[in-house]
C-alpha cells in the first residue's frame, strides 16, 4: 500500500461528506416517513390495541404480558401504565403530524423519534425490523435539514411551500449537506443485504427446492387470504424465491459498487467504466417496487413495505425530482 493511500482516502472521505444538494429529496422522504409513522401508530390505536399491547399487565386495565419499565424515557415517565402510555401515544401522534407537515424542524424530529421509540420498544412481540428502519430514519432527519422546503416552516419563512431556491431558474440555490441522504441509501442497502444473507437456509436454496415463498404463502400468520392455490403455481414461487434472494443478497452490493464507481469515474478500469454507463439504480428500483407490491398484496407484515418504499425516495437525486415536478407543472399550465 502506498504511504499516501491513507491521505488520499481521507481526502476522498472529506470530499464525499462535503457535498451539498437541494433539499427536495430529503423533504419528500420526510413527508413519506411521517405518513408511515402515523400509519404505524394508527394501526394500533384504531384497532383498540393500545392497552393490550403497550401497557403492563400489573396495572388495572393493562395488557396481556409483563413489560417491565420500558426504555429510559418510559421509565422516567413512570413505566407502561395506561395513563402514561395514552399520554405518550397522543404526544407521538401530534409530533408525527407536525413532523409530516414540516413544523418545528429538528426538535420535532427528535421528539417524534423519542416518543415513538418509547412505545414500540415496550413489547418485542409486536415490533419488527420496520420499527428500526423508522427510528434510524428519524435520527438521520434529526441530523439533516428535512424541513428546508415542502414544509410549513418554509411557507412561514418564504411565503411558499416550495422554497424558491430549489427552482432551476434561480441564481440563489438552496443547498443542504448530502450525507444524510447517502446514509439513508446505505441503510436501505444494508437492510436488504442483511436480510438476504440471513435467508441463506435450506428453503431458499436448491437443497430445499427453492420452496421458501411457497411455505410463507401457506403460513396463516402472515398471508392476507387463503393461498393454497399457489400449490398449482409452485414453479412460479420457485422463480420468485430465487429472484427475491438475489435481489436482497447480491443486487445491493452491486448498487453500492455502482455508486462508488460513479463517484470515482475519473479513475481507470474497465469494470468501473462499464458500471458507470449502466443505470443500475433504475433496475434496483423497478425490481424492489415489484417485490414490495407483491408483499403488500399477499402478506400482512405491518408497515415494512411502506417504510422500505419511503426509503426508495432517497435513491432519486433532487434534480431528478425537481425536473419531474417542473414537467408536470408545465403540462398543467398548458392544459
Q: Secondary-structure map with pairings?
A:
Elements: H1 5-17, E1 20-21, H2 24-45, H3 50-54, H4 72-77, H5 82-101, H6 105-120, H7 129-143, H8 152-158, E2 176-177, H9 179-198, H10 212-217, H11 234-249, H12 251-263, H13 270-277, H14 280-298, H15 304-312, H16 318-334
Antiparallel strand pairs: 1-2
Order of helices and strands: HEHHHHHHHEHHHHHHHH
In oligomeric terms, what are we looking at?
A: single chain
Low-confidence segments = none
β-strand amount: under 5%
What is the number of independent domains? 2
How far the N terminus sits from the C terminus, by CA atoms, comes to 62 Å
Radius of gyration: 23 Å
The total strand number stands at 2
Largest sheet: 2 strands, antiparallel
Mean pLDDT: 94
The shape, in one word, is globular
Give a concise summary.
This protein has 335 residues and is an all-alpha fold. Helices cover 63% and strands 1% of the residues. It has two domains: 23-170, no CATH class; 177-301, no CATH class.
Key terms for this structure?
mainly alpha; 2 domains; two-stranded antiparallel ribbon; 2 strands; 335 residues
Task: Kindly describe this structure.
α5 (82-101) packs antiparallel against α6. This protein has helices at residues 5-17, 24-45, 50-54, 72-77, 82-101, 105-120, 129-143, 152-158, 179-198, 212-217, 234-249, 251-263, 270-277, 280-298, 304-312, 318-334, and strands spanning 20-21, 176-177. It is mainly alpha-helical and 335 residues long. Strands 1-2 form a two-stranded antiparallel sheet. It is globular and about 65 Å long. The chain is built from 16 helices and two strands. Helices cover 63% and strands 1% of the residues. It has two domains: 23-170, no CATH class; 177-301, no CATH class. It comes from Haliangium ochraceum (strain DSM 14365 / JCM 11303 / SMP-2).
